[in-house]
Automatic annotation (TrEMBL):
SMART domains: GPS. One of its GO terms (cellular component) is plasma membrane. This is Adhesion G protein-coupled receptor E2. GO terms for molecular function: G protein-coupled receptor activity. One of its GO terms (biological process) is adenylate cyclase-activating G protein-coupled receptor signaling pathway. InterPro entries: GAIN_B, GAIN_dom_sf, GPCR_2_secretin-like, GPS. The chain crosses the membrane at residues 115-139, 151-175, 187-206, 213-232. It is found in: Membrane. It comes from the Eukaryota. It holds the Pfam family GPS. Residues 1-102 form the GAIN-B domain. It is a multi-pass membrane protein. Signal peptide: none annotated.
């Protein structure tokens, strides 16, 4: 039963990690529907996990859709057992709350995202520069020799290779200051990438003997580059602005 009645269904005002510390038990009285008691009932729950010194134990009962502590309290506890007291009969359990582990700083996450964005763009810019140099070298070798010191020197190429990526990242930070490290934006990008790169492959499982699905599979996968261009260029405000 504890696999269905999860400890995270215990709602508390504090942000803590919840751990089920006992098996889930139920208590009823025969031939009656009344769950209220004139006197509290005490019961002992055995720990199924080791206690955390920083943890806080709570005797809880199941109320429709969540664990609550109303009418229940902890009488005493040791390393192996906990005695609970409740004024009604229901489904009971023992839940331990421990302080949540702090997540990494959002500022650090945003900085890392910006650096990754910069390096990713720099890689593409350098590939473009290499393609241009190769084209010039193949089509007009004398031009690259005569203009090497004026245009194609290493300093100029470094400025282009890194400055373009830096400008794009700067524009992104200026237009969407909370974009890097934002959970909503990360989720949106993940869903968009899943639709573009993953959904079309689902048709591959159903193409057996169906020419129509085979054609759709080929069309959708061959157009992934088009979809990526639409999402990252046409529908991207930063790219259109730049």
């Amino acid at each position: 039963m504890e696999n269905l009645l999860k400890p995270n269904l215990f709602n508390t005002p504090n942000d803590t990690d919840k751990t089920m510390m006992s098996t889930v038990i139920s208590a009823t009285l025969p031939k009656t529907n009344n769950t209220e008691l004139t006197k509290p009932v005490n019961f002992t729950l055995k720990h199924i996990r080791e206690l955390d010194p920083n943890g806080s134990l709570s005797c809880v009962y199941w109320n429709v859709s969540e664990w609550v502590v109303d009418g229940c309290s902890v009488l005493k506890t040791n390393s192996s057992f906990t005695v609970c007291s409740c004024v009604h009969l229901s489904t009971f359990a023992l839940i331990m709350q421990t302080p949540s582990i702090p997540l990494p700083s959002e500022v650090l996450c945003a900085v890392i995202s910006g650096v990754l964005h910069f390096l990713f763009l720099s890689g593409f810019v350098w590939m473009f520069i290499e393609a241009v140099l190769l084209f010039i070298c193949v089509t007009n070798l004398s031009r690259i020799s005569s203009k090497k010191r004026e245009v194609l020197n290493s300093g100029f190429l470094c400025v282009i290779g890194y400055a373009v990526a830096l400008v794009v990242v700067g524009v992104s930070v200026w237009l969407v200051p909370d974009g890097y490290g934002s959970e909503q934006i990360m989720v949106f990008k993940t869903l968009a990438q899943f639709v573009v790169l993953g959904c079309s492959w689902i048709l591959g499982f159903f193409t057996n003997g169906s020419k129509v699905l085979e054609i759709l599979f080929l069309i959708l996968n061959s157009q992934q580059g088009t979809f990526i261009f639409l999402i990252y260029c046409v529908l991207n405000n930063e790219v259109r602005y730049y």
